[in-house]
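Good morning C.,

I know you're traveling, so I'll keep this short. The sequence:
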Amino acid sequence: MSDLIAYKSNALVEASYKLTLQEQRFLLLCIGRLKSGADAESPKLQKTMTITAAEYFDSFPDMGRKNAEVQLQEAIDRLWDRSIILKDDEKREEFRWIQYRAQYAKGEARAQITFSDAVMPYLTQLQGQFTRVVIKNISRLSRSYSIRIYEL
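The tokens, ready to paste straight into the viewer:
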């Protein structure tokens, strides 16, 4: 079971986006690997993530070991088309989660993505207004909206 903690800005938590359970799990696993603070690598150096089906299963064992590879592939295939919409009284912004098409290394049971430049500040440059998601606390949630409610 993963001891990872994913940090997201509150603006991102409150933003409009639709993700499947698998997509949310994949993103939270990637976000949990990001480091922020004075001793962290530059966000540009952390943008690319590689996740294996074994790591995905270890963090979310309810999917079953046999399904982990399929669900990982489905999650990254769909993420390419997903966007985030941030709204306030003055403006509306829309940007993508990933900027580099998710790659799935068939037979190697691993996937690689690159977060978009627009989303990185909401994941790494957190100054006080953020939400902390403990991966093991959401690992057994079985609906995508359950994770959204947990984040709120």
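Safe travels,
E.
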